[in-house]
């Protein structure tokens, strides 16, 4: 018997879903990135200039005429953000709360698997799946970089991949922790979705209104993209916040699951 049965089941047991999310990421990249050369027109620049500056900043369009700005605005800051968030929340909420509601958790714990072990291996599986999506995005963008004339640097691309996956993992570990605390998948999804929506809103409000900038330090979205890593390189402070919070939430998950009754 494997010494990490929950981890292996968590990764291999969801390979179809992982493949579907990877395919969705590739499809989005193929849809948007090759359009970049045709978007570099005076008309586009004029249209952006005619928009309210607050709206341009909130949407991340202030640098959309560069390859890094375009990739950030269309993928990492929008569609790619949505994809990795939904995937991570789905995996995080299912790992403990979903299995508890189905009765699978109680059955697994009855077969000499400790609660802390279960939580930690579930978290490890979540981390691996999120990172695999990061690998898919990195390879896809790297392959399209030249043909799409994006001019992206490999080290900066790695920096934004780490921020993007860290943002997804933050959402996923919120769902994992909420599920460990409550045992209810609806609560896990609700808690993580609230963190994501509020984080995005806090960042957007701070971009649009200088008086609201005090909200941005509370936004995981802001931590990920505040220093434009695809253009400027690694933001170690932002990565520390994202990955540090994720690690803390994993610890909370193990602690909470070890200290309450299972209701499945």
From TrEMBL:
One Gene Ontology molecular-function label: ABC-type transporter activity
Keywords: Membrane, Transmembrane, Transmembrane helix
TM regions (residue ranges): 12-35, 75-97, 118-144, 156-179, 186-202, 236-258
GO cellular component, one term: plasma membrane
Keyword Magnesium: no
Keyword Membrane attributed: yes
Full protein name: ABC transporter permease
Highest taxon of source: Bacteria
UniProt cross-references to Pfam families, sorted A to Z: ABC2_membrane_2
């Amino acid at each position: 018997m494997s010494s990490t049965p929950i981890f292996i089941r968590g990764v291999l047991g969801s390979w179809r879903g992982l493949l579907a999310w990877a395919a969705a990421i590739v499809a989005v990249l193929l849809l948007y990135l090759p359009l970049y050369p045709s978007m570099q027109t005076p008309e586009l620049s004029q249209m952006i200039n005619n928009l309210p500056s607050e709206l341009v900043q909130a949407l991340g369009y202030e640098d959309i005429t560069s390859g890094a700005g375009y990739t950030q605005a269309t993928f990492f800051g929008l569609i790619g953000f949505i994809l990795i968030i939904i995937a991570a929340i789905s995996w995080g909420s299912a790992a403990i709360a979903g299995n508890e509601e189905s009765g699978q958790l109680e059955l697994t714990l009855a077969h000499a698997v400790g609660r802390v072990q279960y939580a930690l291996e579930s978290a490890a599986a979540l981390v691996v799946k999120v990172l695999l999506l990061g690998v898919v995005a990195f390879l896809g963008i790297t392959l399209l970089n030249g043909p799409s004339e994006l001019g992206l640097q490999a080290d900066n691309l790695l920096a934004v991949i780490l921020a993007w996956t860290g943002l997804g993992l933050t959402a996923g570990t919120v769902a994992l922790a909420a599920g460990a605390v409550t045992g209810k998948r609806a609560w896990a999804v609700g808690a993580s979705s609230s963190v994501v929506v509020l984080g995005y809103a806090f960042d957007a409000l701070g971009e649009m209104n200088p008086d609201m900038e005090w909200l941005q330090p509370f936004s995981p979205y802001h931590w990920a993209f505040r220093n434009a890593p695809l253009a400027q390189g690694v933001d170690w402070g932002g990565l520390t916040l994202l990955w540090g919070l994720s690690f803390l939430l994993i610890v909370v998950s193990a602690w909470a699951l070890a200290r309450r009754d299972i209701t499945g």
